[in-house]
Design a protein that fits this description.
By secondary structure, the chain is of the alpha+beta class. It contains 5 helices and 9 strands; from the N terminus they run αββαββααβββαββ.
Length: about 190
Amino acid sequence: MQNGHRPAIRPLRSLWPTTGYQVDKVALASQKVGHPCCILTTSKEAVFKDRSTEEEKAEKIRRKVSFMKCDVTKSNPLEPNSLPLADCVIIAGCLICASKNDEEFKTVLKNVVSLIRPGGHLIINDYLGASYYLVGEAKFSVLSLDENIVREAVSESGCEIQEFMTFTDLQFQEEVFNSNVSFCLLARKH
């Protein structure tokens, strides 16, 4: 178990420079309860060959960002749209909202993994042990996950976990969100 936020960024930072991918298309999708899911498709064009300024790089990415509805409960989460298989999918805080039980969690994860090419990566950042969160006066239920279910679901989805880190220094008020443990994992699809 590791504490702190810095290590959680390491898998993200280390993924692109070592694989040499440059973002060609980024689709930020919001599944039915409105939580973000980020799907990246990339080319093998090396990032280090791009001599653009930071502003030019930011503008290139902005031109390639599109928003699409996403429903992770469908076998094609992007239906009726489709994209080429992605090199990397990043999911942050949405699968526990889209799943009512462990079996649904495994199914929605398989649906998301179906968007990744063989050898591609899956990055998940979510919460363990949560059961609800509040938005104003509205209370929303979420699936209470434990690490074993997450590991099992990732394996059954056809991925191998390369890194799994938990963080216990979250500072949520219990009245707003009842989890103080988050996790970040990096997995590779077989």
